[in-house]
Design brief:
This protein is 36% helix and 14% strand. The protein has 137 residues and is an alpha/beta fold. The chain has one domain: Oxidized Rhodanese, domain 1 (3-Layer(aba) Sandwich), CATH 3.40.250.10. The chain has a five-stranded parallel β-sheet with strand order 1-5-4-2-3. Strand 2, helix 3 and strand 3 form a beta-alpha-beta unit. The termini are far apart.
Length: 137
Amino acid sequence: MTIGEGVELATLIEEAEADIEVVDADGLRAAIDDDDLVVIDLRDVRELQREGHLPGAVHMPRGMLEFWIAPESPYARPVFQEDKRFVFYCAMGWRSALACQIATRMGLLRAAHLGGGFTAWKESGFEVVPYERKKKA
């Protein structure tokens, strides 16, 4: 196989969305204040700085996904060991569809992704929170 002969990106995303729960911006907005929900922003920190994020979202760089979820990882985060509902999002919904598929395979059975991503959220006119850099202790 040479470059360009593999599975196309669009196919990977379509296959992921067939395997996972997809929520739209209206559905996420209706649930955003639920204590059982954890909203995960997979975008690069530069995207957060430039555009802000959803209210209450937890930032998790896409590259750390598997390591933060896996309980045996030295990077495991306690929130992923809780019985919570997780909604992943990125800019357009591509990274989050693929990430959600992996998260589900890793045992986050109540995981979903925001179809259309941050773009769909903004276009719906919902609140966007400015990014604030965490202060060092």
